[in-house]
Design goal:
Elements (H helix, E strand, L loop, with lengths): L4 E7 L2 E12 L6 H14 L3 H22 L6 E5 L5 H17 L3 E3 L3 E3 L6 H7 L7 H4 E3 L11 E9 L3 H12 L4 E9 L2 H6 L4 E8 L3 H11 L6
Parallel strand pairs: 2-8, 3-4, 3-7, 7-8
Antiparallel strand pairs: 1-2, 1-9, 5-6
Helix pairs in contact: 1-2, 1-8, 2-3, 2-8
Length: 230
């Protein structure tokens, strides 16, 4: 894997849905450097002061590099966050991140896409489909009063990790049904060596062009924070 390049990613069964992932999310113990990056995912999800520090740092880098990767002006972008499964975690994870991005000229929000109710996590939803449990695809909603702000913009759906891509697909399809095309950006893409060898991974990737400084910045930040997960 090339740590200095971002990845262009597509959902295997939905090649019309494509986006960018910054690094691979690997199982613990696979590779020390990749595990350092892996911990950034937990850092982003966390509720500590160091997590807030990382989210601010990531916002700066997204603001700096995403327009270069997508070949557009910063003011033409809108970042929409995939809602968390529990509403109580939504603001803590995304408020500062979105405020930082917006203050740097890249509009971002965590309210346009929302869940009508708390849902089971993606890890449990497979087992709950027949029970009538509330799952992401059943509860994802769009604030239609915000649609006017998205017209004519390059809309990017943001999530921390893409594994199967189901949540991103549901957000993408909801936006498209309302006349909005979107790409996605994730911090990481789940990597399973067995699935890659058998060519059965839910997502397909290829390395994009290197954006000088981006991955080095992430690795340096991860190393500076040590190996604390949250």
């Amino acid at each position: 894997m090339k740590n200095n390049n971002y990845m262009k990613v597509r959902i295997r069964k939905r090649p019309d849905i494509e986006g960018i992932s910054l690094f691979h999310y690997v199982k613990s113990g696979v590779n020390p450097q990749r595990e350092t990056l892996r911990n950034l995912v937990f850092k982003f999800k966390g509720e500590t002061s160091s997590s807030e520090l990382f989210r601010g740092f990531l916002a700066e880098k997204v603001s700096q590099y995403l327009p270069l990767i997508l070949g557009c002006k910063k003011e033409d972008l809108v970042l929409l966050c995939v809602p968390t499964s529990k509403k109580e975690k939504l603001e803590g994870r995304y408020k500062g991140f979105c405020s930082k991005l917006t203050s740097m000229g890249l509009k971002a929000d965590y309210e346009t896409l929302y869940l009508s109710e708390d849902v089971t996590t993606k890890h449990m939803s497979y087992y709950c489909l027949s029970s009538g449990a509330k799952t992401f695809d059943r509860c994802i909603r769009l604030k239609r009063e915000n649609l006017a702000k998205l017209k004519g913009k390059k809309v990017v759906i943001f999530d921390d990790v893409i594994t199967n891509g189901n949540n991103i697909r549901d957000c993408h399809d909801l936006l498209r049904a309302n006349g909005i095309d979107a790409k996605f950006l994730t911090l990481a893409r789940t990597y399973n060596s067995d699935f890659e060898v058998k060519n059965t991974s839910s997502t397909i990737y290829e390395y994009g062009g290197g954006t000088e400084g981006l991955m080095k910045n992430l690795i340096d930040f991860a190393n500076s924070m040590g190996k604390t997960a949250i």
